[in-house]
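Protocol step 6 of 9: fold each sequence in the batch and record its structure tokens directly after the sequence line. For illustration, a two-sequence batch is reproduced in full.

Sequence one:
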Amino acid sequence: MKLNTDTFLKWLFLLVYLLIAFIYITNVIQPELIYHSQRPPFILGCDFFSTFLIFPGGIAQYISDFLSQFFYFGWRGSLVLLSCGLIFMLSCYFILRSYNAKVLSFFWIFIPVILLIAALSNYTFPFVAGIRILLVYLAVWFFRFLLKKGLNSFVLFCIFAASIYYVAGAGSLMIFSVTIILANLLDSENIKKSLIFLIFCALYTYLFALFAYKYIFSISPEEAYFSILPDMPNFIKFIPEVLFNIFCYSLPLMTLIILLHQKILYKYVKKGTDIVKKYSPTIKKGPFSILTIPNICFVAVIAGLSYFTFINTFDLHKKNIILADYYCYNEKWDKAIGVALSDKQYDIFINLNFNRAIDNTGHYLDSYFNYPQLMGIDALIPDNISAIELSEICSDYYYDLGYISESQHWAYESLTVLPYNIRMLKRLVMTNLIYNNYAGAREYLEILDKNFLAKDFVEKYRPYLIDTTLAARDNLILEKKLLLPESVHLSNIISNRLQDLINKNDRNRKAYEHLQMSFILSNDLGQFMKNFQVANKFYSKLPEIYEQALLMYLFMTKSANMNQYNISMDSQQSFYGFLKTMHENNGDKELAKADLEKYSGTYMYYVTYNSPLVTKLVLAKGDGQKY
């Protein structure tokens, strides 16, 4: 009876652990951010599926891409991940039972789940790697089950090795082979027979992988033997670390430890276990009668290991980079702004999304310097950086401005590295509708119709292809058409791009504000003043940032014509207060910095401390995140 109660409480602890893991994955990791970060492609149909049949591990990739679609829905993605974790646990449990492993057997089943959740904390972790390892666990479990039924181990190994290679890839084959070899050593009492099986498995694995690489599949040398990770674009390429490698080789490592225990260390461990049992106090009465020191230690170790693993692998700053873009994509502008301002570490992606968010809330000029604009004009015009990882942001930027041809160009750029990316496929539907290219819009809608995540979008815009007057009455499409510049060719000069938009529609306030901001950020106040009079079209009262730039211009040119401009007293007090503080510190900006922090949201502070013309901060070539 005691054994049954003990077992029941262990499985109860497992269920509680899985519930806590579900809450952690849903609310902290947030699967929708994994989807948003990687945009795994998936469309229904034989043509798409057939592309996964021509390389080893393709079927695992297809399964992963399909399951990853559920990440889009948040908690449903958590259920998918939790289901994978439960399968890890069950397969691990039955594998250990086949080893007759009794020492810490229940402890081991938590290890792959803890490592999987830790890996998911990195938003570039490809889920397919987890699927490939899971398939190894399942293959070993099924192999051991059939072996117990009396089937020939050599024949079984040949069948399973070939299958796991094709379904999960070369790296999975290697892990499977090592595990089976160690398990055979664990089972066998005949050293000679074990060595024969070991040599056979090693040779078969090597020769099979070599033959497949040379004569069957068109794969790179890196993919021929040990590859677990898929080929990914550099900007979302996962960099494996120690915990990932432990996760990949967790099953052979557990098998090795059990082998060492049963063959070498058994008598020492048994002696220690007997001592623990002898001196472990047990509550003999009441509902807690099975609480012993080993059981309490087991719970404490699993809880502690999970806590320290998760807390040391989760990076809030990296999450905020994705979260800011996620909120902007879903047009939750205030949340995007909140994420940006809450993060104390500068990042160009957060900067770009902050700028887009304040632009779409109507607080562009009022809030611009609330975030440190360390990259200056590069954070205003994203394609000024010319990095492929910014292609979606560039497309969004020009779409917001109404420069549709350039938005379309960057959507195509994005699809070259992230094919079937529904975010950009939706964009191409919209740009083609704006250009009255209904054939082009139909082509992309047909692709989107094969992805269940785009169902609502397809249902909304498919009628536009049948009744084109719907597009003519769509407010968003009408607005974008009114903003289209006369020339579809993009100037290399930033100010000319924005001027093209103003020339088409002189009431385009957004283009005007971006034009003036480009001059302000590059400290070209002469050009700013040339366009200053146009401000009367848009503002009854000058924005503070324009007043600060105007005061800076008048101060630098030593102009005495301040009275002709209606500059507010608040802006004057702020400007001269800044100058006074600098004077009190003998012009030493480093000495004055602490006193000037209260002006951190002003143009004066930007020019003095944050402008890249002062800091000499530049992005590393070809990398949108290194400075």
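Sequence two, same batch, same settings:
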Amino acid sequence: MDNRHDELELILLAVQEGILSPADIHECLREREGREASTGKPDPRPLFRIAVEKGLLNQDRIDGLVARPSAPRPGVTVVMIDVPMECPSCGMPLSLALKQALGQPRCPRCSVVLRTRRAPAPAEKPPSPQGLLPEEVRKAAEDPRNRFSKYVLVSRLGLGGMGEVHQAWDTVLQRRVALKFPRSVGEDEIRRLYVEAQGAGRLNHPNIASVYEIAEAEGRHYIAMQYIDGATAEKRIEAMGAKRDVREIVRWIRDAALAVHYAHQNAVIHRDLKPQNLMIDAGGRVYVMDFGLAKVLSTAGDATVSGMVLGTPSFMPPEQAAGHVSEIGPASDVYSLGATLYVLLSGRRPYEGLSVTEVLVKVLTSDPPPLRQVDPSLPPEVEAIVDKAMRKPREHRYSSARDLAEDLTNFLDNQPVRARGTTVTYRFVRKLARYRGQLITAAVSAAILAAVILAAALRKPSPPPPPAANPMEGWPAFFAEYRQALSADTFRADAATRLLERAERDFPLQKSLLDEFLSGQHQVVAATLGSLPRERWLENREKAGRYREWLAFLKKDTAAADAILAWRGTCTILIYVHPYAEVRGPFVSALDPGERFTPLNLRNVDISDGTIEFHHPAHGAHPVAVKGLRNGASYVIEGSWERREEIQIREGK
């Protein structure tokens, strides 16, 4: 533990676990500077050793932190601490990340080494917060079993299949929170907890419950979330009794749909929307809760594999019920919002059965009873909206959750809705559509038979006409070959060209069926490329190349495949330039400007050829050419401005 990087990791771990506070770090930095000023020499003590000497840390705590795995847990954001600093020469104030503060940064204006800014004189100590605690918190705090880390567990709010939730009191920030714990410590349960934090943690919307932190303390993983003083939509409906407020329920789903659309814009699919996951506070505001099954697009956060069915069956769209993970997207949440509205308005689920399997089969093979068949008093406009949101083909639903919200707003504003109610004829046609191939063959055969009978009845004593050609002759063999040649995974351009020409010539009546097949293939390709995590891009280059050829042949967008084919992997670059340097170039473009100073550890940066530029107000600029980097390798750039020609990149050991 003798280098700055290890020191930083240890200090940040201590803060993550609540052992040290930012104020403690500031105090230790002031102690180090005071020692260096009095001796005229650099203080060799690591920051954590100073914390031990000041009684802020002990050796047992240090040993425990060192024993922790070095790899970050999934979904955890590294804690960053800002250190207030100032120039002793010109007085310029700066706020730098702890990583920079440990590296003896210099003033960008006059190049003098910065010092830690003195904290203002402490105000009179406020009264103990113990006297300000709500009564129920104070009573809970008296029982040691209710103390967990910096929290007091007040009451259990719920217990589900994947976790339990407690109302708790944050003793540091003096506020109520909801703490969620996984029911077990298995790898899958812990992973889903972090997936939920990763999904909801990136969202900041007035109708989505906020995530404050995810951490591990006392051997338990947990999420601290915004506490909502209210009840679930399911409980609110039970409280309404038989007289449901239709407009109020529609407003709930409208607001929830807007929040879900915001989540979709940030690449988060909820996948478990239902009345129990909508919370209504005392003022009537709706909150979307529980992102434990969320799918975070373009990351490795999704804990589901193809064929796995997760969620609540009665609210699942068909693609989710069938376990087609690659097909699950924004339209899936639109369906679940429609099913939620169905339940809240009618008091019954769209699909019911004696077992989960029975419900899933109904989701895949049948339509729910029309809403007004369940409750004739409901407005036909609302029935039309629910029906459109719950269409089985994804392309027949609302194109986005925002479109659903806009149609619900039309209803609330007494304006015409865009959805059209279904008729008996339409429902009959939808059932026929499931058997379209068989019916087309039967209809064509019947037409041929009728033509033969009619010809026989009207024929005159003359030579019989030649038998009528069967337009479906050869169709089964053709379609099998067509699917083989034009499937994205078995695509053959030469055969595909020939079969497309033959389809147009010999089977014009089947055009819609063939177009639907290609559309389904395109959705699978787009979803596969879009959800493939970066760390798997290199191993899937061959598939991406095959998919790109298929997309180009059908004149579809190839951008997602091109990105995978162009990606060369990631590497780590450690930069040590003395006394310090500002780093510029594409390798640091994702960092905040205040973090682009040496020493710098660039982890998992995308590989590309280019230039890293180093700048210093007194020494000028120095470029370093970067090329030929290898995936997974580590590189070092080090040197000093006095011998800038030695500042080059080399591969580390």
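Proceed to step 7 once all outputs are recorded. Observation for sequence two: Residues 570-651 form one domain.
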